[in-house]
Amino acid sequence: MIAYLQQKGFPEVALHFVKDELTRFNLALESGNIEIALESAKKLDEKDHWYRLGVEALRQGNAGIVEYAYQKTKNFERLSFLYLITGNLDKLSKMMKIAEVKNEVMGQFHDALYLGDVRERVKILEDAGHLPLAYITANVHGLKDTAERLAEKLGGNVPSLPKEKKASLLKPPTPILGGGDWPLLMVTKGIFEGGLDATVRGGHEEYEEAADADWGESLDIGEVENLQNGDISMVLEDEEGKEENDEEGGWDLEDLDLPPDTDTPKTASNARSSVFVTPNPGMPVSQIWVQKSSLAAEHAAAGNFDTAMRLLSRQLGIKNFSPLKQLFADLHMGSHTYLRAFSSAPVISLAIERGWSESASPNVRGPPALIFNFSQLEENLKL
């Protein structure tokens, strides 16, 4: 029956008839049920399952579960990049310390690049024996004292730098907002979920706990700074996970008291009690101007220059529109205002209505705002 339901495209139904954790985990991933998948992954506790859970959580935009899965698999490279794209610079700094303790020079250098930490990059290059690169980095970024010290070490092998007239600082932009979990729509419970709330409630609580926990706070950086490179027994568990160092500040997340200070939304079971209906988009104001008006000027204000020229040609017999080109552009620009959004998003265009007021009905749209009046036109004629 389970295979039949899965074959027919109902893995979420088959999920409630399965007791085997591996099958349950696979069905949960197939149906996108991140709650049950997390519950099964904790019981299976295998690297491959944590990796697959992280992939599915990333697809759903659940940054908290992705972070948890990466930490369970000790995938530090992906974890650092996750902190970068979510704007979590504090945790990214901790990852740089962890890379230093583990003596992973490349990972440490990447984290320093992500953070825009020039002094740390110079230090890493110097410690790695790349003195010419360290000197160039320090000199280019204006660290004169460090550059002079490195020049003394290099002696006569100081590299020459080209003199560029235009130079710009290559530094990652400072995140304005820290990204968390993606917002999710509320959905109704399935026919089987309503009767099985009592049995899966424990899994829901584990999911909420994982989503709300600030997993990055488990890194004890205070102890990391006192360790020598290569000695990581007090910071991380053994790579194979065979040794336990719970009393010495390892990365065993099961025993940590993690403060719920992140603002990731909970996915409680009662949040599915109602259905969210996406509102239908309204008609743009500029399109309403075109539909309701037969004036060429209002069509030009809406940006529909073709219909404006056809109206003028039909109503007044105008054939040469070259003298009207600037007037058309002025009408359109004068009846719109523009707002900047995010740097990766296009500019938002807003139509300006004539005589608009807050007390006006939102269903009644006015004509476009005027940029010319008779007195202005008279003055233009005098010139």
UniProtKB/TrEMBL annotation:
<keyword id="KW-0333">Golgi apparatus</keyword>
<dbReference type="Pfam" id="PF06957">
    <property type="entry name" value="COPI_C"/>
</dbReference>
<dbReference type="GO" id="GO:0000139">
    <property type="term" value="C:Golgi membrane"/>
</dbReference>
<keyword id="KW-0472">Membrane</keyword>
<dbReference type="InterPro" id="IPR010714">
    <property type="entry name" value="Coatomer_asu_C"/>
</dbReference>
<dbReference type="Pfam" id="PF23953">
    <property type="entry name" value="TPR_COPA_B"/>
</dbReference>
<keyword id="KW-0653">Protein transport</keyword>
<feature type="compositionally biased region" description="Polar residues">
    <location>
        <begin position="266"/>
        <end position="277"/>
    </location>
</feature>
<dbReference type="GO" id="GO:0016192">
    <property type="term" value="P:vesicle-mediated transport"/>
</dbReference>
<keyword id="KW-0813">Transport</keyword>
<keyword id="KW-0677">Repeat</keyword>
<dbReference type="GO" id="GO:0005198">
    <property type="term" value="F:structural molecule activity"/>
</dbReference>
<keyword id="KW-0853">WD repeat</keyword>
<protein>
    <submittedName>
        <fullName>Putative ovule protein</fullName>
    </submittedName>
</protein>
<dbReference type="GO" id="GO:0006886">
    <property type="term" value="P:intracellular protein transport"/>
</dbReference>
<feature type="region of interest" description="Disordered">
    <location>
        <begin position="239"/>
        <end position="277"/>
    </location>
</feature>
<keyword id="KW-0963">Cytoplasm</keyword>
<dbReference type="GO" id="GO:0030126">
    <property type="term" value="C:COPI vesicle coat"/>
</dbReference>
<feature type="domain" description="COPA/B TPR">
    <location>
        <begin position="3"/>
        <end position="141"/>
    </location>
</feature>
<feature type="compositionally biased region" description="Acidic residues">
    <location>
        <begin position="239"/>
        <end position="260"/>
    </location>
</feature>
<dbReference type="InterPro" id="IPR056176">
    <property type="entry name" value="TPR_COPA_B"/>
</dbReference>
<feature type="domain" description="Coatomer alpha subunit C-terminal">
    <location>
        <begin position="189"/>
        <end position="382"/>
    </location>
</feature>
<keyword id="KW-0931">ER-Golgi transport</keyword>
